[in-house]
Amino acid sequence: MASSSLARTLVPAVLRATLRSRPIPDEVADQSVDTFLSAYFGAEFARTFGSALVHGIYAADSRQLSVRAAFPSLWDASIRGKGNIVRGIVQNALRPSNNLDDKTYEMGNMMDKMKGVSVYSFQDGMETITRALRQDLEKRHNVEIIAGDAAASLRRDASDTTFKIDTVTGRRIDASHVVSAISLKALNNIVPPSIPITSTTSQNSTSSVTVVNIVFPPTSFPIHPPGFGYLVPRPRSNALDAELEDHAGTLGVVFDSCALPQQDLYANAASPRFTKVTMMLGGPHAFPHNAESVSEDKLLGILSRHLAPSQPLPKPVLIRVHHLTGCIPTPTVGHLQRIAAVKNDLKKSEFWRGNLEIVGAGVGGVSVPDCIEQGRHVGLNW
Ligand SMILES: C=Cc1c2[nH]c(c1C)Cc1[nH]c(c(CCC(=O)O)c1C)Cc1[nH]c(c(C)c1CCC(=O)O)Cc1[nH]c(c(C)c1C=C)C2
Fold first, then answer.
1. ipTM
2. What InterPro entries has UniProt attached to this entry (predicted)?
């Protein structure tokens, strides 16, 4: 490890940050993740670790992503440590948690169940969460779920306090309060053009990712080393074409059969094991523009160069390619301030009177827990 290129970047970067104090100037309200990490840990650390981490969560360019929105604890650590980020991280870790919300979540025995768990999945996929939510909500007499329809316009007459939502199928819904979980761009398209929700929606971009699931037949040699998978950092700015071709827009690869072996059901313990991997491509990279441009040979060529297995990769028994357009919002630099301004406008506006709230991955954080937390705070001032 000590002689690996990982350690050669990591150890000096952490030492440098431990010894260095770099208070953020008062006039700087936000920075990109890349600028922030470069200041404390050096440019090479920011390019390798920083960009790879950002690829794994946001599939975005760390030079555009807001550090305050994406990694608020790092920003807080820098403030708390008075410019020494390592001191700030240690102080944050030692600080007793006074988050009252921790105590008000009904967690059942979930905390015990999750002890030592770093990643979990559902046998029937992530849809399990939304299906369970739906089943629970349908039991409540005051909840109606309308599926297969979309809001086409959101209006209110000047003389009336009730909002009118018209759907694409012609349904009319009257509402005293509205919570919007659609993107701000989509919301802007349905509100009266004279009162746009925000004039800065163009700064709220999204990432598109091509997800490739590959299943290899049982082999006598390991297709990949044991582990969770790997993330690919942003190429050096002076990277040669051949180096770029090696990755061809790959953001990372998950070794599914290793990370989540419980997902694979076999007849018995002696059954030969298949190997499942998931490649993710695209995001800030130009390649691939669409699912059709991803040829099987090209994908397997990239994977083979990365994994360098002891024997050629066998022909997969299954390859599925899905191109997910605009699947992850990118909170760019200044995101928190822009969202605060929008929320303030909604509160102060004669038209909205604080009765329209905005939530969702493009507003207050992209993870499932972030979205749950936003939902919990909705309507507290109504
Ligand atoms: C379509 C590709 C996606 C990539 N990231 C996300 C999607 C939907 C969203 C996402 N990924 C992670 C998080 C953080 C979760 C949290 O903080 O609660 C979010 C919102 C982390 C993550 N990324 C990958 C895995 C397996 C995990 C879970 C790890 C963990 O939390 O311990 C893999 C991965 N995701 C993407 C890439 C390119 C990638 C590559 C290995 C993009």
1. 0.94
2. Amino_oxidase (IPR002937), FAD/NAD-bd_sf (IPR036188), Protoporphyrinogen_oxidase (IPR004572), Zeta_carotene_desat/Oxidored (IPR050464)
